[in-house]
Amino acid sequence: MLESVGSLTGSPWIYAAVAVSVLLDVFLPVLPSGVLVITAATAAAGSATGAVEHAVPDILMLTLCAATASVLGDLVAYRLAWRGGERLDRAIARSRRLTSAQERLGVALSRGGGALVVLARFAPAGRSVVSLGAGAAHRRVREFLPWSILAGLIWAVYSVALGYFGGQWLGATWLATGVSFGALLAAGTGAAFLMRRPAVQESAKQA
After folding, report:
1. Nearest CA among 100, 71, 96, 85 for reference residue 136
2. Rounded Cα–Cα distance for residues 206 and 66 (Å)
3. Residue limits of the VTT domain (predicted)?
């Protein structure tokens, strides 16, 4: 598997590719940022076991790169939504999902609870909804940023760990990447389910 993408995973450009993909997927959730992070981590596992000879990303640097890009993407979306004006407000008002997320997020953040931000980082398009909702609601950055940092770090550690340990156990193959990405999708499905549960919403409000 990694021979076909060795030119990327075997060069410093992998960090730039990961950073750009993770940063932009807050606006384009279809970008395969999770796949790219997992593939790079699988390459690192292949190097550790001797299955891959070329230089590959450092695990710590890869984690920090993905986490930092995640937070920066959140902040860009947050600031754009903050300055979005009436057009964005009308767009959010027309979306029941965005309106609901905005209301729940505002209550959770104002009361010091940010579990919703962490869960949203794993849920499909959840990161976009929460970041835009926080900005459009003009939540204070000190309420949103710490939870964004925690969410980005947890997501990055989880994604890199999936790729690395999947590569250790299954080898540097497409199977390892596929299984690891399946585990990431499973976490996203679980996060989406938890975000919709009334009990979780109430606990976030009371946090």
Report:
1. 85
2. 31
3. 42-164
